[in-house]
Amino acid sequence: MKDGEEGNMYSVKCKVITVKNGWCYAGCGTCPQKLEEESDEYFCGTCMTTLKTTTSRFRIQLRAADKTTQADFVVLDREGARFFGISAEKLFQDNDRMRGPPPAQLLQIEGMTLKFDIKLTDYNIANPTSEYTIWKIGLEDDNNNSNDHPESIEEIENGIGNDAVARIGVTNDDALEKNVESPDIEPKQRTNGEEDFNTGGDDDVANDKGNANKLKRKHGVIVSDNEEQIE
């Protein structure tokens, strides 16, 4: 765990099981707020302005597991654009849909093991089965994350259950997480994640490594000759 001005930060290493439907929302072009539709116009409750057009913003919902359990995570707009190298607006224009299956660019992380930097909020403490907001995504062999010794999901959840985490203020991103509707999310259940974390045949492993290599190159990580042959 890392203490900072933004609260208690945790780092976890886990395997992405699925990228859920409903990957973006109609947002304000000035702030991250989700817009309210009013006839043929849209209203931003943060900027207190009426708009004719919307800006697509990321709200990528993931389910991931480590060797202790599973949990739900969410990637918001700024980190989604940084990690995937494309804005939600551009991805929406290319795919022309917000609902239904996510675009292929997002699905490529399914089966990959990634590092997530997350911050526990008042909302997480009050609702232990809520999603964890990811503040930074790193590749498995990326050493630039804030914590070189990641905790397990179970350790974080036990910390919440024991009220061991200090209560912290809710930031604008946290407020957005609560305000953005997610009609496609199924009920959240905590189950043992070891089976999902370790399963997959040889073809699945090869595909996972191929996807990982593409993201490694995008993030400036050197890919060895042996890794290149996987693709």
From TrEMBL:
Residues 173-231 are annotated as: Disordered. Pfam families: Rep_fac-A_C. Residues 175-193 have a biased composition (Basic and acidic residues). InterPro entries: NA-bd_OB-fold (IPR012340), Rep_factor-A_C (IPR013955). It comes from the Eukaryota. Residues 194-205 have a biased composition (Acidic residues). Residues 10-124 form the Replication factor A C-terminal domain. PANTHER family: OS03G0429900 PROTEIN. This is Replication factor A C-terminal domain-containing protein. It comes from Linum tenue.
